[in-house]
Design goal:
Elements: E1 4-11, E2 17-24, H1 27-40, E3 55-59, H2 69-92
């Protein structure tokens, strides 16, 4: 799995939303890194508070492909004719 940028958010017992940006390979790693990062910057849950939910937004870089359409069509024709030839040879058996 690749490393992705993640935004980790939570609301505390005062209904205040806190969020941080972390980089992680998995959802659970993002949550743990986010909670640690929030503590590093001064967020503290009070002793009676139990965080029930954490929201994680995962941002991945877009993937870009450039396809040469004539080559694609040639590839498709070859696959279709190959499948037709294969079907014919099987029916001749």
């Amino acid at each position: 799995m690749s490393i992705s940028k993640c935004i980790v958010r939570l609301k505390d017992s005062h209904n205040t939303e806190h969020s941080v940006e972390v980089y992680a390979e998995s959802l659970y790693e993002a949550v743990l890194r986010g909670l640690n990062r929030l503590q590093d910057i001064g967020w503290e849950s009070n002793g009676n508070e139990t965080i029930q939910r954490v929201e994680v937004g995962i941002h991945q870089e877009p993937t870009r492909h450039i396809v040469d359409v004539p080559k694609l069509l040639k590839w498709r024709r070859l696959r279709v004719s190959g499948a037709t030839n294969s079907s014919q040879s099987q029916s001749e058996r």
